[in-house]
Design brief:
Blueprint (H helix, E strand, L loop, with lengths): L15 H19 L1 E2 L5 E2 L4 E5 L6 H17 L3 E5 L6 H8 L7 E6 L1 H4 L1 H4 L10 E16 L8 H10 L5 E4 L5 H13 L4 E4 L5 H7 L5 E4 L6 H6 L3 E6 L24 E9 L4 H15 L2 H8 L4 E5 L1 H22 L5
Parallel strand pairs: 3-4, 3-5, 7-8, 7-9
Antiparallel strand pairs: 1-2, 5-11, 6-9, 6-10, 6-11, 6-12
Helix pairs in contact: 2-10
Length: about 350
């Protein structure tokens, strides 16, 4: 913000006493800014911050949260402790955060789907648009569609052909019900008129372990440090990606839109959320610090190296994105008759 220049006109030039009062006021404002009021007028932060990852360990949200936590702790001057609380497509962790004290010491790290997709396919113990406030987006993550060692074909077209020739012979695993992967399965089923068997997990590393072991033929997941090494070695083969364009790291892999699956060409947006009554100045402070972190070349590159794209949106913009996706998913779920399994 630019400040107006001080007037040098004799009638408006400050006196020595006026200057002392001005300096005192500036000092008081600085002290007030350094001790941001939280709940009941207490300074914030006044204790460690819990960063609740609403999925089990081992996935993209877990790895990125643990990348952010120490950097955010340094910016805020208090420990940021990562806590995994998975289940029900992120709804269990989101419910816990929604019911936490709204004092800025509990935040969620999650994809937007517990707010934008889950309410349309399952009954929730929280109101996704009233009980939580979007704080800041962190990134959008493409969705990999992978073949495991159990799949004998080579391409996405082979998968469709096999599903048509032998209905129910291909199993596609996802991180869970009401996940973006689940939505992708349903969209492919509907568009290609094939019978894919949905195998929902509860997120985390187990789905990757089972994929490498060939426990099913196909897998949808976000890029992460858990899955990327197996993609690099060829143990898990990329058939397609959900992304606005082909990934620079995999230029030969088509997007699902290119393969005639525009509705399934989905990405996951991840960010921070807080209980709805969290004071607006605290929400904005966290959002500002996230934006500063994502502007750091080293952190941006760490995300890009795993095919995740930094995307910093503040509370207003992130909230608008959440509302748009909530409305869009309502239409998609109704048209495809998607239900939690």
């Amino acid at each position: 913000m630019t400040r107006p220049a001080a007037s040098t006109h004799p009638a408006t030039a400050p006196t020595r006493a006026g200057r002392r009062r001005l300096l005192a006021a500036v000092g008081t404002a600085a002290l007030a800014a350094s001790a941001m009021p939280g709940a009941r007028g207490q300074a914030w932060p006044s204790k460690p911050i819990r960063l609740v990852v609403v999925y089990p360990t081992g996935g993209v949200s877990d790895s990125v949260a643990r990348l952010l936590a120490p950097r955010l702790a340094e910016r805020l001057g208090t420990p940021v402790v990562v806590e995994n609380k998975g289940g029900a497509g992120g709804s269990i962790g989101m419910d816990a955060v929604a019911k936490s004290p709204a004092d800025g010491h509990v935040l969620a790290f999650a994809a937007v789907s517990p707010l934008t997709l889950n309410p349309h396919v399952m009954k929730l113990p929280y109101d996704p648009l009233a009980d939580l406030v979007p704080v800041a987006s962190v990134m959008y993550s493409p969705v990999y569609l992978l073949a495991t060692p159990a799949f004998t074909g080579r391409t996405f077209a082979d998968a469709i052909a096999q599903s048509r020739a032998k209905p129910g012979s291909l199993r596609m695993a996802t991180s869970g019900v009401a996940s973006v992967g689940h939505l992708m399965v349903e969209q492919i089923r509907d568009r290609a008129r094939v019978d894919l068997v949905h195998v929902p997990y509860k997120g985390g590393a187990q789905v990757i372990t089972d994929a490498v072991g060939g426990q099913f033929e196909l897998l949808t997941t976000n890029p992460s440090s858990a899955v990327n090494p197996f993609v690099a070695k060829g143990t898990l083969r990329l058939l397609a990606v959900g992304a606005p364009k082909r990934l620079d790291s995999h230029p030969d892999v088509p997007t699902l839109a290119e393969l005639g699956q525009p509705e399934a060409n989905l990405t996951s947006t991840f960010g921070l959320f807080a209980p709805a009554a969290t004071p607006a100045p605290i929400v904005q402070r966290v959002a500002d610090e996230i934006a500063r972190l994502l502007a750091q070349p080293e952190l941006r590159q760490r995300l890009l190296d795993t095919d995740n794209v930094p995307a910093a949106l503040g509370p207003s913009e992130f909230g608008a994105l959440v509302r748009r996706e909530h409305e869009s998913n309502a239409r998609i779920v109704k048209a495809a008759n998607i239900r939690a399994e």
